[in-house]
Input
Amino acid sequence: MGITNWNTELLPYEQAVDEIVLKLKSVRRDFLRRQQHSPIEQVEGRVKSISSIIAKANDRNIPIDDALNVLEDIAGIRIICRFVEDIEKVVNIIRARDGFDMKILQEEDYVTNTKKSGYRSYHITIGYKIVYEDEIMPLKCELQIRTLAMNFWATIEHSLRYKYDGHLPEHLKERLHNCAEAAFKLDNEMTTIRGELLQAQKTKQTQEFLVNEIVKNIHNLYAYGKVEHLNDYNRQFMEIFRDGDVNKLSEFNHQLETMAEIYNVRYV
Ligand code: 0O2
Output
């Protein structure tokens, strides 16, 4: 076995993970800015620990020196969705980038084809290039796309598998199968109330948008010296805000916009 300086060898993977996480978080932010439901709920990234790399290489009879070239999940990204339906949307978002800033190398659908363990998730292996020490460096990265329920199950099962060194006792396997079944049912149940949840989400996003607009409009009127009604505006705003009625917030915002037009206030 050669001497691998793991800490420096893994730095490019850390950079790739940071870049991809940032890009996917921006996708989520774009949806929210457009006041749309984001199929991406959370994004997490990690570089595989040195001990996990060595253990996986050993399990698969891969010489340690080849591990970085052969293992495709040294850089790993987990994309968590609320609903099963969101998984396909995320997959399509990734596919739309194929050939642009990432290259799809492989897709594995463990959502439809549940693993024997009960594991469900959609895996995409991508090729991703980074600029590292002035050189273009191609790397591989595994994206795991799954729902919150699938993630809950996988996290618990992973910890238990680690505890038992990969050899889960039968009684635990059975329980985990029951839990996987329950997670599957939970995802299906969530799908049936998806419409209601999306509506609630939309109302909250609209309320947040209107509050931002109102605060900005009041500030602009103040900045342009239109201070005579300022206390009134603030009082009215607080009353409507406490009331929580989105229509009233919208009406009030409209009033402020009309005032801004009358006073010819330009936005600052
Ligand atoms: P860690 O600590 O998560 O990195 P392959 O079977 O090789 O064709 P696959 O399944 O994509 O394709 O490869 P692999 O190596 O079996 O699994 C890749 C990763 O998927 C795993 O990484 C896990 O994160 C996750 N995974 C796969 N199967 C299971 C499972 O049964 N339970 C859980 N909890 N996770 C799973 P690592 O290396 O296991 O670990």
